[in-house]
Design brief:
Layout (H helix, E strand, L loop, with lengths): L30 H39 L30 E3 L7 H5 L6 H10 L5 E5 L22 E7 L2 E2 L5 H11 L9 E3 L9 E2 L8 E4 L10
Parallel strand pairs: 1-2, 5-6
Antiparallel strand pairs: 2-3, 3-4, 3-7, 5-7
């Protein structure tokens, strides 16, 4: 004969009344200490300036993501959708203009980076204005470049998507004998492209900022911009 009473474990825990819920597990102690230790580790690795730059750009990226996700027509994956099912977005107007080409010979991936919405709009504007006067080849944007500026603990503008390297101008390698590349470096540093960079590296000594030269910049032009990164745009 079955018991009139249910087994002790049957139906346990009992369902919560409508509109109620069982209290959530209290937070574990020590979470704040872990955050402090992680932050201290990041500062120790990247230095105060690098950490500030990373946090600033992360804040800017989060704000952009929120704006994009709440825009009309924004795609919101349904429950159970695979995270990688959403196609990778591209920035508007990312088809390279005539006169602009790319190479991976320097160990970077500029063709893929050029299509990324994370690329600083000033870099894109610089390239669009440049090819109105010269044919140029991009050797590096972001992927493949070292995180720090060589020989320093300063985060490279390449790492933050706001720099570009050019290794050819008008079909010739950048070097001390390429007069077209020298003229282009001077024009870029004077803001001729409609944007003013904070650094223009080249084989030539123009004598003042934003221009600079050293042994590492004898075969290409480097153009970088100050933060924060201005991602996206044409």
């Amino acid at each position: 004969m079955p018991s009139r009473y249910p087994e002790p474990w049957a139906g346990w825990p009992p369902p919560a009344p409508p509109g109620w819920g069982w209290p959530a597990r209290p937070p574990r102690p020590g979470g704040g200490l872990v955050l402090v230790l992680v932050l201290a580790l990041v500062v120790g690795v990247f230095g105060p300036a690098g950490t500030v730059a990373m946090l600033r750009d992360a804040k800017h990226a989060i704000a952009q993501a929120r704006t994009r996700d709440h825009a009309p027509g924004a795609h919101v994956p349904g429950r159970g959708a695979r995270p990688d099912a959403r196609p990778r977005p591209s920035a508007p107007g990312t088809r390279p203009p005539a006169g602009l080409s790319f190479t991976d010979q320097a160990g970077c991936a500029p063709t893929r980076d050029y299509a990324s919405p994370r690329l600083d709009r000033r870099v894109r504007q610089l390239l669009a204005a440049t090819v109105a006067h010269h044919r140029v080849r991009v050797s590096c944007l972001h992927a493949g470049h070292s995180w720090f500026v060589a020989g320093t603990r300063r985060v490279s503008n390449h790492s933050l998507w706001r720099a570009v390297d050019l290794d050819q101008v008008d079909g010739r390698p950048v070097g001390p004998s390429n007069q077209a590349a020298r003229d282009l470096a001077g024009w870029i540093g004077r803001g001729g492209a409609g944007v003013r960079p904070s650094e223009v590296g080249s084989p030539w000594d123009f004598g003042r900022r934003p221009w600079f030269t050293n042994a590492a910049h004898q075969d290409h032009l480097h153009v970088g911009f100050d933060g924060p990164t201005q991602a996206g745009g044409r």
